[in-house]
TrEMBL record:
Protein name: UDP-glucose 6-dehydrogenase
InterPro entries: 6-PGluconate_DH-like_C_sf (IPR008927), NAD(P)-bd_dom_sf (IPR036291), UDP-Glc/GDP-Man (IPR017476), UDP-Glc/GDP-Man_DH_C (IPR014027), UDP-Glc/GDP-Man_DH_C_sf (IPR036220), UDP-Glc/GDP-Man_DH_dimer (IPR014026), UDP-Glc/GDP-Man_DH_N (IPR001732), UDPglc_DH_euk (IPR028356)
Binding site for NAD(+): 7-12, 32, 37, 85-89, 126-127, 160, 271-274, 341
Similarity remark: Belongs to the UDP-glucose/GDP-mannose dehydrogenase family.
Pfam families, sorted: UDPG_MGDP_dh, UDPG_MGDP_dh_C, UDPG_MGDP_dh_N
Catalytic activity: UDP-alpha-D-glucose + 2 NAD(+) + H2O = UDP-alpha-D-glucuronate + 2 NADH + 3 H(+)
Amino acid sequence: MKICCIGAGYVGGPTMAVIAIKCPDIEVAVVDISVPRIAAWNSDQLPIYEPGLDGVVKECRGRNLFFSTDVEKHVREADIVFVSVNTPTKTRGLGAGKAADLTYWESAARMIADVSKSDKIVVEKSTVPVKTAEAIEKILTHNSKGIKFQILSNPEFLAEGTAIQDLFNPDRVLIGGRETPEGNKAVQALKEVYAHWVPEERILTTNLWSAELSKLAANAFLAQRISSVNAMSALCEATGADVTQVSYAVGKDTRIGPKFLNASVGFGGSCFQKDILNLVYICECNGLPEVAEYWKQVIKINDYQKNRFVNRVVSSMFNTVSNKKIAILGFAFKKDTGDTRETPAIDVCKGLLGDKARLSIYDPQVTEDQVQRDLSMNKFDWDHPLHLQPMSPTTVKQVSCVWDAYEATKDAHGICILTEWDEFKKLDFKRIYDNMQKPAFVFDGRNIVNADELREIGFIVYSIGKPLDPWLKDLPAVA
Ligand SMILES: NC(=O)C1=CN([C@@H]2O[C@H](COP(=O)(O)OP(=O)(O)OC[C@H]3O[C@@H](n4cnc5c(N)ncnc54)[C@H](O)[C@@H]3O)[C@@H](O)[C@H]2O)C=CC1
Ligand SMILES: O=C(O)[C@H]1O[C@H](OP(=O)(O)OP(=O)(O)OC[C@H]2O[C@@H](n3ccc(=O)[nH]c3=O)[C@H](O)[C@@H]2O)[C@H](O)[C@@H](O)[C@@H]1O
């Protein structure tokens, strides 16, 4: 059997590498229109940082895993074609700011129809609006020259930073297909691929629309938990409760569970916001404004949390950060990834720059070039293939990036911790304090420092959702 995956990104690359390592009898080709991305997959410096990925790729690359820009050849030869291309939020026209832009999906589908010479199973791996399979089916069958295509929905649930362990040991694999004999056969064929390593009871099969909607629903529920705990964090600060204690107590209820209840400066990542906006749009299109409004609130609270954080920083520092050096520790949207798509750090940095701060940024996995791109890019432009993203000629002058947390914090007035990298927990804060301007502030957007210890050293500390430092008590949290 031959598998081809269109789109060698955060999903396509790791997912196919794991299929290749677990299924030595299957030949897997990952193809992409981006020449540098494929070159990187074929080099020692993979295009994405993901713990454990290097080892998996090294073991099967050149054996039964291939990365190529020859998209048409590999699609033509494949029995199963996964499509894992970008599905960004539309920035123009109908549904702008909400609906999914299916440009890349449609062009992939048309290309599949053009080059195919044998029947194929086409698998939606990208996250798409519910009912997309119907549109894809139409594109394929109207251009098929008699070739038969079966469309399956097989959404991906991996999280970045833990992608390899998530793929090795998934909570579930979801496969949706048409409820016809041909549809069932296609579902069975894909099920057999996963059955190489996933226990049968964890492979769920549903109809197409349930599979498509379950992916949007899962991301909406996960993001909703974070917005719920973040909303509580604001109330904790106002009342003297401690959000970590509240989360622990709430999560002990087995019906709620302990995971995904960490208050933060806000959730980021390429999907939560995009997928919820997409869900909101679908609800509106289906005449369900109340349901749309309900999910919109998850995004609103996330934006509120990021704003609230910036306002805390500015109001604590005598209501101005103009020309003050602020150290930003962490820029990626979470630890163990270099991904900065929709990271809360972008909004926080933009907020501080709006108040004329000077920023010194350190993230162990993010380059200066990436930070500059992110800070000068328009909303949602980041989610297009790299070579199609508009290049901004301007650099943000008040921003510099360094490769060391001590360098970033030297002479700074304040520190904002925006990613929970493990190395930040082990920093020598006494040394940092001695080299900072006084009073020295720490704003912990991830609740990773020991606030009491830092206060002992002399810092004024703000931790999300924790009882406030006396310094902060009478200052307005929201300007
Ligand atoms: N990043 C994540 O953790 C997850 C992402 N998803 C979904 O998976 C999809 C892909 O996401 P990522 O892998 O993060 O995106 P990505 O941007 O890392 O990768 C997408 C790749 O597709 C390529 N591409 C676009 N159009 C193409 C075409 N017509 N032919 C060949 N290649 C093409 C791009 O050059 C790019 O390399 C999205 O729909 C996303 O919502 C789902 C679960 C997890
Ligand atoms: O569709 C997707 O793209 C993926 O989106 C998320 O995965 P990911 O965005 O990679 O990472 P998460 O671990 O979910 O974190 C998302 C954001 O929420 C934040 N977060 C997470 C958990 C928490 O308790 N608090 C919190 O603020 C993280 O710091 C991060 O900014 C989902 O967890 C995956 O199941 C899904 O496949």
